[in-house]
Amino acid sequence: MTSLSRLALALASFVAFPATTAFAEDEPRSETEWRLFVGDHAEGVVRAFDAETGTHAGTFRIDKTPSLTRSDSGRTVFAVQGDAGKVAAIATGIALDDHGEHADLKVTDSTLLPTVLTGTKPAHIVEGSGSIALFDDGTGDVTLFRESELLDGKLQPQVLKPGGAHHGLAAPMGDFLVVSVPGSDPEKPRVGLKVIDREGKQVGETVACPGVHGQAQSARTFVFGCKDGIVVAAPAKAIGGSVLTHVSTADLGEGNVSTVKGGKAMQFFLGNYGPSAVVLIEPGASEMFRKIDLPTRRVDFALDPAKAANAYILTEDGNLHLLDVLSGKIVKSARVTESYSMDGHWRDPRPRLAVAGDHIALTDPRHGLVRMISTETLAEDRTIPVEGIPYTIVAVGGSGAVH
User: What InterPro entries does its record include (predicted)?
Assistant: First the structure.
């Protein structure tokens, strides 16, 4: 039995009992709020919408077409504009404060923050252990900061110089970071990964990871994609840093992992594998890899943070597939949009997915829409018209008590 299967049994046996109080009339009400942030393909614009009503919640003009990344808390969306050398930050206006047995929900207006992160060619943003790392492809520098400092307008970033310029990444793990290592051969710009401390000093040996690209965190573990496998980065108290372990994917056949997403309620990872497959990754399990072949080429995929066993995969024929990560099988498929061929440039406008509560938000660039798809039935419930060419998308929100 895999670790996911054992956890599924544990989840199935759990029963939650409501708390009681003599002062029920004073209890806060529970509300759910989700916002969508949509990046335009042709212009430097990010548009925000209420996911339930489709109401416009803000237009934020920046310099270039953005790549969007949300913070773990959902309080900030980063609009990375590598070609402009800038990263804009949007305060989402959605705040969930954890109080143990419940979370308080506070909803305010979304705003474009005045602080802009700059660099030669800023690229990957990775969050971990309460820190956010921005990697600059143009210099190889890593800028470290905390979200709270950014939101408070008191940003005091730390800049580390772990190596030369390359299309790389850095992932914070406790007091350390895992960073990509550039190669001397232009044909092999990324050769491996290493651990550095917060002063930039290397800890331990470099681990080979040719063409390293893509990373994700699940629980306290990171996984990185390589041309010949993956590297698992697990915390290690013995050296105060992390242990990097390379695992080959040769037995899976032709292909490699270059995009990874990490589970929230369960520890697992879902990665791409070649153009027409995905792979489930369970570090520490007897069967670490489970490859799932798709009926045609993959366009995008997303994990459901609330329904832990659900993953959604859009293929170029316009079909959306529900993957059960426990069984490793596609259990439902439905046509949700017209075909979007994967031929052509990788930056051509194609649909992107984000999960917002009980719906999958799917951008449809050709029709200027965000399609809201039920996570239960995979049927379209409604659409949100969007000006321009809707492309990248992130969702932030959740349920909490409103006092």
Answer: Quino_amine_DH_bsu
Contact (Cβ atoms closer than 8 angstroms) between residue 133 and residue 144: yes
Token output for 49: 């919408």
Residue 3 confidence (pLDDT) above 60: no
Can you tell me the distance from the alpha carbon of 18 to that of 21, in angstroms, rounded to the nearest whole number? Answer: 10
Residue 213 to residue 217: CA distance in whole angstroms: 14
Residue whose token pair is 């956890």: 7
Contact at 8 Å (CB) between 79 and 135? no
Full set of structural domains in the chain with CATH: 3-13+30-402 (2.130.10.10)
For 377-390, give the secondary structure using H, E and C: CCCEEEEEECCCCE
Tell me the pLDDT of the chain averaged across its residues: 91
Measure the CA–CA gap between 89 and 14, rounded to whole angstroms: 39
For 276, which DSSP code?
T
Residue pLDDT, tens place only, 175-234: 999 999 999 887 778 999 999 999 999 999 999 999 999 999 999 999 999 999 999 999
- The pTM score is 0.91
Please say if the pLDDT value at position 10 is more than 50.
no
> C-alpha dihedral over 321, 363, 150, 30, to 10 degrees?
-70
